[in-house]
Amino acid sequence: MEGVLFDLDGVITDTAKFHFSAWRVLAREKIGVELPADFEADLKGVSRLESLQRIIHFAGKTGVYSEAQIQAFATEKNTNYLKLINSLTKADILPGIKALLDELQQHGVKLAVASASNNAPIILDKLGLTAYFDTLVDPQQIKNGKPAPDIFLAAAQQLGIAPEHCVGLEDSIAGMTAINAAHAVSVLIGDPAEFPEADWVVPTTESLSYDLLQTVYDAR
Ligand code: B16
Ligand code: MG
């Protein structure tokens, strides 16, 4: 294992709840639909515009809005989301992640962020974690979002490591598919029933360690 490719939302910090709460307000106020709680999983790891398209589709309003309206909705959601994440601090790093980053660094493993979020640099800064990462992929430069492998391939390439020698950490189905398609080793956080194609699943970030990742990597 030469590199670890981190998803951000749901792996390093729990911003998924802020994304969903901002989408819920936008959906209610602008699209006239109430998003059910289980819709949250459908939006994890999915880009801002693709998330909005899924919500519009769910509302049965595909084709109703102009390109300008869609852009305005996306901007409004992001403005609301930025307000929600403004209060993030080091205390919002998910349990075990800081220790994992320290361990990986001590073992000379290279670290990348492969997040679909354009807000990743702000979030890492607020969490005080920016310096741990050798590289961050700019999602604007990625043609196909998760579940396509592109962002994980770019992360490995930016580290100068073959994806086969990397472990990818994710909390979403789209992310799992993307890591597997990139031929990296996939370690998922959540319910094993949700991620049948993962190389390994842990219940929470607390279970992550250098030893665990190296063991899963060796077993593949
Ligand atoms: P933004 P990840 C993803 O981050 C989120 O899971 C997803 O819900 C969000 O829509 C996407 O980032 C884009 O985020 O609106 O901040 O650019 O899980 O890939 O770290
Ligand atoms: Mg995620």
UniProtKB/TrEMBL annotation:
<dbReference type="InterPro" id="IPR023198">
    <property type="entry name" value="PGP-like_dom2"/>
</dbReference>
<comment type="similarity">
    <text>Belongs to the HAD-like hydrolase superfamily. CbbY/CbbZ/Gph/YieH family.</text>
</comment>
<dbReference type="InterPro" id="IPR051600">
    <property type="entry name" value="Beta-PGM-like"/>
</dbReference>
<feature type="binding site">
    <location>
        <position position="171"/>
    </location>
    <ligand>
        <name>Mg(2+)</name>
    </ligand>
</feature>
<feature type="active site" description="Proton donor/acceptor">
    <location>
        <position position="9"/>
    </location>
</feature>
<dbReference type="InterPro" id="IPR010972">
    <property type="entry name" value="Beta-PGM"/>
</dbReference>
<feature type="site" description="Important for catalytic activity and assists the phosphoryl transfer reaction to Asp8 by balancing charge and orienting the reacting groups">
    <location>
        <position position="115"/>
    </location>
</feature>
<dbReference type="Pfam" id="PF00702">
    <property type="entry name" value="Hydrolase"/>
</dbReference>
<feature type="binding site">
    <location>
        <begin position="7"/>
        <end position="9"/>
    </location>
    <ligand>
        <name>substrate</name>
    </ligand>
</feature>
<feature type="site" description="Important for catalytic activity and assists the phosphoryl transfer reaction to Asp8 by balancing charge and orienting the reacting groups">
    <location>
        <position position="146"/>
    </location>
</feature>
<feature type="binding site">
    <location>
        <begin position="43"/>
        <end position="48"/>
    </location>
    <ligand>
        <name>substrate</name>
    </ligand>
</feature>
<dbReference type="InterPro" id="IPR010976">
    <property type="entry name" value="B-phosphoglucomutase_hydrolase"/>
</dbReference>
<keyword id="KW-0119">Carbohydrate metabolism</keyword>
<dbReference type="GO" id="GO:0005975">
    <property type="term" value="P:carbohydrate metabolic process"/>
</dbReference>
<keyword id="KW-0597">Phosphoprotein</keyword>
<protein>
    <recommendedName>
        <fullName>Beta-phosphoglucomutase</fullName>
        <ecNumber>5.4.2.6</ecNumber>
    </recommendedName>
</protein>
<feature type="binding site">
    <location>
        <position position="9"/>
    </location>
    <ligand>
        <name>Mg(2+)</name>
    </ligand>
</feature>
<feature type="binding site">
    <location>
        <position position="77"/>
    </location>
    <ligand>
        <name>substrate</name>
    </ligand>
</feature>
<feature type="binding site">
    <location>
        <position position="51"/>
    </location>
    <ligand>
        <name>substrate</name>
    </ligand>
</feature>
<feature type="binding site">
    <location>
        <position position="146"/>
    </location>
    <ligand>
        <name>substrate</name>
    </ligand>
</feature>
<feature type="binding site">
    <location>
        <position position="170"/>
    </location>
    <ligand>
        <name>Mg(2+)</name>
    </ligand>
</feature>
<keyword id="KW-0413">Isomerase</keyword>
<dbReference type="GO" id="GO:0008801">
    <property type="term" value="F:beta-phosphoglucomutase activity"/>
</dbReference>
<feature type="binding site">
    <location>
        <begin position="115"/>
        <end position="119"/>
    </location>
    <ligand>
        <name>substrate</name>
    </ligand>
</feature>
<keyword id="KW-0460">Magnesium</keyword>
<dbReference type="InterPro" id="IPR006439">
    <property type="entry name" value="HAD-SF_hydro_IA"/>
</dbReference>
<dbReference type="InterPro" id="IPR023214">
    <property type="entry name" value="HAD_sf"/>
</dbReference>
<dbReference type="InterPro" id="IPR036412">
    <property type="entry name" value="HAD-like_sf"/>
</dbReference>
<feature type="binding site">
    <location>
        <position position="23"/>
    </location>
    <ligand>
        <name>substrate</name>
    </ligand>
</feature>
<dbReference type="GO" id="GO:0000287">
    <property type="term" value="F:magnesium ion binding"/>
</dbReference>
<feature type="binding site">
    <location>
        <position position="7"/>
    </location>
    <ligand>
        <name>Mg(2+)</name>
    </ligand>
</feature>
<keyword id="KW-0479">Metal-binding</keyword>
<feature type="active site" description="Nucleophile">
    <location>
        <position position="7"/>
    </location>
</feature>
